[in-house]
């Protein structure tokens, strides 16, 4: 069984291969199903029990917290959103609906003993005063337990707004390092999304550049979220382990 203490924290968004193969090669997996619907707690506990002790689970927060019901991802929900309640979901609103979604996310995270909870907001969630206030209110109220919280704001958030907000709320600014620079975080959360194309496979020079970045940030989490995530993670690890 692989022991990951002191080794690069490289992983994938979801299980791209049978789970044991992922446990043997990777240091972590970002659980994706929870974006669409929380895992049953028995499933989450079983995953935690079967995985190596040093293997980390990251958890993607439920879209009911971050995305409004007009987003296409709501088509994958397992239940309909009542028309007269749609305005109360998503966008970090201080509503019973959003907090109920957080409670479910939190329960699954506890069952998995998740290391990081990852929040991603859509491009339409822009840095308006109202949205800044919602981010501040949501993250200021929730019980953090031992989680690290990572946020990827897909909208056009300027550094002068985003950096102090992440600093104030102790949020990791999650980024694709080939697209933007992380502005805050005790540890980096790099999420490789395929250069704008899910089916993209990273080139040798790009993996060399990424390995150099990780050597400068040895505590970083680095997850591949492209079609070739398992293969690219393996190629990156070969570089990292070959250089110590």
What is the β-strand count? 8
Order of helices and strands: EHEHHEHHEHEHEEHEH
User: What is the strand arrangement across the widest sheet?
Assistant: 6-5-4-3-2-1-8-7
The CATH level-2 architecture is identified as Alpha-Beta Barrel
**Percent helix:** 25-40%
Biggest sheet, in brief? Answer: 8 strands, parallel
* pLDDT < 50 runs, ≥5 residues: 1-6
Average the pLDDT over all residues and give the rounded result.
Answer: 94
Domain count, please report it. Answer: 1
Using only C-alpha atoms, the radius of gyration works out to 18 Å
What would CATH call the homologous superfamily? Answer: Protein of unknown function UPF0759
Distance between the termini: 20 Å
Q: In CATH, what is the class?
A: Alpha Beta
Overall, the morphology is globular
CATH topology: the name is TIM Barrel
Beta-strand content: 5-15%
Q: What structural class should be given to the helix and strand makeup? A: alpha/beta
DSSP summary: helix tally:
9
Describe the structure.
The chain has one domain (9-242): Alpha-Beta Barrel (TIM Barrel). 38% of the residues lie in helices and 15% in strands. The chain is built from 9 helices and 8 strands. It has helices spanning 19-25, 33-36, 41-50, 63-66, 96-112, 129-141, 159-169, 204-216, 229-242, and strands at residues 9-13, 28-31, 56-60, 116-121, 148-153, 172-173, 189-192, 221-224. Helix 3 (41-50) runs parallel beside helix 5 and helix 8 crosses helix 9. Mean pLDDT is 94; it is low at 1-6.
